[in-house]
Amino acid sequence: xxxxxxxxxxxxxxxxxxxxxxxxxxxxxxxxxxxxxxxxxxxxxxxxxxxxxxxxxxxxxxxxxxxxxxxxxxxxxxxxxxxxxxxxxxxxxxxxxxxxxxxxxxxxxxxxx
Amino acid sequence: xxxxxxxxxxxxxxxxxxxxxxxxxxxxxxxxxxxxxxxxxxxxxxxxxxxxxxxxxxxxxxxxxxxxxxxxxxxxxxxxxxxxxxxxxxxxxxxxxxxxxxxxxxxxxxxx
Lengths: 113, 112
Hints:
heterodimer; B: mainly beta
């Protein structure tokens, strides 16, 4: 079975540019999570969805960040405008309702110059 | 920020040795999870624990849910080179479903 699929694997962009990260959760999973990983702060939850509806976005750092889930098999995390401090690895994870076990994608390494 | 205290931060061990690491929390958790992350990849679930005192094994890995519900331990027996990676604990309180808290990770290096 295919796991959580993220694209791109690597993204290098210049400050001020818009960045869009993509995620396809595991089929049948109804929860989707976006995490950010940095050396300083470790793994941080940014936002999560249930049945395509955002449930908790308290971890989204600023208005420059937005996330959408237009259907059960696709989600995006957008940063506009991007800043160097946004450089991190962004992970998408999914889970099945009622199960705390999260399954992570391989991540997107974002570098903002 | 992180509310879990994971230790040690790193370990350098010889192949064949056993490894132990632990996590403690100021909050009572109803679930403990242990993940391993290889370079350039996402965390992969190793073991899930749901009850205080629970002891669960997955091959050479054994994890325990502390009886106080505020700690958990992971042991790796007879380490091999592919055990290299970062191990994370993660926990969840009863009133925060969906918001796993992650430890800072334990970097394990195995030398032949």
